[in-house]
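Below is a complete specimen:
___
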Amino acid sequence: MSDYAIRLPRTGGPEVLQPELIEVPPPGPGEVRVRQLAIELSYADVMYRCGRLDAPLPTGLGSSAAGVVEAVGPTRRGARFAVGDRVAYATVPFGAYATVRNVPADALIPLPEAVTAEDAAAVLAKGLLVWALIRHVYPVQSGETVVFHAAAGGVGLIAGQWLSHLGVRAIGTVGAADKVRLAVDNGYDEVVLYRTDDLAARARDLTEGAGVPVVYDPVGAATFTASLDALRPRGVLVSFGSISGPVTGVDLGILAAKGSLYVTRPTLGAYLPDAETLRAASAEVLDLVARGVIRPNLRQRFDLADAGKAQEALESRATVGATVLVP
C-alpha cells in the first residue's frame, strides 16, 4: 500500500477508523518528515473515537510514535536532526496513525542506540506522564509508601518500576486477581483488589495507622472515596484520569473532614512548558529504558491498517501491557 493515514471521520465504533491514502508535502520551516516505524496505542485515542473527548472532525489520531528522519525542512538556527536519525515524539496530537508525517522539530527526541523504535513508542508518552506525576506533581521520596491505582495498566507498570528504583514502597491496585502477579513483577510491594478489598485499611496497616502521603488515581469515580480515605492528614490525591467515569458533585468540605486533604488534576502539558523541558524529561525516561530500569512490557503489535481491531482489543481489556501499531 502507498502511504496512508488512519482517519476518524465521525465518532463511533472501531469500524469508523479507515485508511486514507496521503501525499505528505516537503517539511516546512522548523519541521521534519518522519518515516514511522511504531505508533503508540493509547486509551485516549479510544476516547476521541467514541466522543468522550472532543476532537475537530474529521481528524487523525495518535500523538506518540517513533521512526526515522526522512527529510528536514528549512531552519534559521541550524538543523538539530539529519536524514537517517532515529527519533521519537509524544506530544504532537492528531496524526500519529500514519506511515509518514511532518512533525515540529522541537517535539522530536533523539533515540539512544539501546532503545528500539517499538520500545520508544510504547514507553515515551506514558513515561513522561509518570515523570510528571512522581517527580513534580508530588515528588516522592525514598522510604515513602504511596498508592498507585491501575497498577497493571500501561502507566501503572512504568510507575511501579520507577517507584521501586527510587526506593519507594508502592501499593498498587488492580481490578482483577489475574493482574496481581503482573503488578508485583513490575515493582509493587503490595497489591489490592480495589473492587473488593479495603484499600484504606491496607494503607493504614502498612503505615502504622498514619495513611499514605499521596494517591495517584487514573480510575476516577470508582476509587475517589477510597483514595481520600487512604491518605494521611494533608495528603495529596493526584487525580489524572477517569477510566471508570469522572468524579462529579464533590462537596469540598469532605477534604476538611478527612484531614485537610489536597486534590489536584494535572495535565502533562503544564509540566512540559517548553522544548527544553520536554527534551530533558524525555532523555531521563529513555535513559531509564536504555539501562533496563524501565521495561516497556510491549505485549501486542497490530498492523496500522488494523487500528480499529487494536482499539477494540484495548477497549475490551483483551490487551496486557503496551501495544503498538506497526505501519
